UniProtKB/TrEMBL annotation:
The chain crosses the membrane at residues 56-78, 112-136, 143-164, 184-204, 216-236, 242-264. The keyword Membrane applies. PANTHER family: AT30094P (PTHR14969:SF13), SPHINGOSINE-1-PHOSPHATE PHOSPHOHYDROLASE (PTHR14969). Residues 143-257 form the Phosphatidic acid phosphatase type 2/haloperoxidase domain. This is Phosphatase PAP2 family protein. The keyword Transmembrane applies. Keywords: Membrane, Transmembrane, Transmembrane helix. It comes from Pseudonocardia abyssalis. InterPro entries: PAP2/HPO (IPR000326). Pfam families: PAP2.
């Protein structure tokens, strides 16, 4: 079967230079594990019937379904909360501990920072960064990957809140403005780790030095950790809401990055770059 031709417009939008196949010395189109080999084989079979862009969408859709299933299963953590065992036993003691740390000035600062991870703040922040990278690099890959990450993050948050329906910490222990939606999982924390992670992924593929790549990954991780901590500090979420959100965010980030790597692999097979153009790591 002859593979269907690529959409020339989308193909140009997703055009990748040879150097973008690498993070340092690591080739993103190399799949040394058995699982990776299976994924590439399945993607290649799909490529016989679909365009590379369609394969990307299929992988994202399947990954989103699997991640949504994980979100529903995460309701088991809620059972741990009600039974007061395991890590859930830290929820109430930790909230009691942060009550003693609050000051008016710190409350204001943490509230302002937390707003960056909200349903408006985080997509806007990530969107601005993505558009800036798209303009600077003259390709739409940053916008497409950030948009896919944001859409999946929102879907997982909605599924989790509807499935579990956990009540937030008491308003008497929270810093206003108060939130009334379900508590589990923390959407701010999920958004932060998924979107900061995909921006870091985009950046490290362009950065030539190990120091720059390390700084980028650390900055993304610190941002996500602080966002989750802010939700507990403000009394808007329990610790377990944040922990599960981080896990789900990492799972979805892995799906998006894997889907993009598969697309790079399919394109590389058809248009292998000159090995001499492989970037050097410091």
């Amino acid at each position: 079967m002859v593979p269907p031709p690529e959409d020339p417009v989308v193909s140009r939008a997703l055009e990748e230079g040879p150097e973008q196949r690498y993070v340092g010395d690591r080739d993103l189109t190399a799949w040394p594990t058995a699982v990776g080999s299976v994924l590439v084989r399945l993607a290649a079979e799909l490529r016989q019937r679909l365009t590379p862009q369609a394969v990307l969408l299929v992988v994202l859709a399947v990954g989103l379904v699997l991640a949504a299933g994980l979100t529903a299963l995460a309701g088991a953590v809620y059972d741990a909360v009600t039974e007061d065992d395991g890590v859930a036993a830290l929820d109430r003691p930790l909230l009691d501990a942060v009550l003693g740390l609050r000051t008016p000035a710190l409350d204001t600062a943490v509230t302002a920072f937390s707003a960056l991870g909200g349903p408006v703040g985080m997509p806007v922040l990530a969107g601005v960064v993505a558009i800036g990278l798209a303009v600077a690099w003259r390709q739409w890959t940053p916008v497409l990957l950030v948009a896919a990450t944001a859409a999946g993050s929102l879907a997982l948050t909605v599924v989790g809140k509807v499935t579990v329906g956990r009540v937030r910490p008491p308003q008497v222990d929270a810093v206003p403005p108060y939130e009334v939606s379900a508590s589990f999982p923390s959407g701010h924390s999920l958004n932060a780790i998924a979107l900061a992670g995909i921006v870091a992924y985009l950046l490290v593929r362009r950065q030539r030095t190990r120091r720059a790549r390390t700084a980028t990954v650390v900055a993304a991780a610190v941002f996500a950790l602080l966002m989750g901590a802010s939700r507990v500090y403000l009394g808007h979420h329990w610790l377990t809401d944040v922990l599960v959100a981080w896990a789900l965010g990492l799972a979805w980030l892995t799906v998006v990055v894997t889907a993009h790597r598969l697309l790079l692999t399919l394109r590389t097979v058809r248009h292998p770059p000159d090995p001499a153009e492989q970037p050097r790591s410091d």
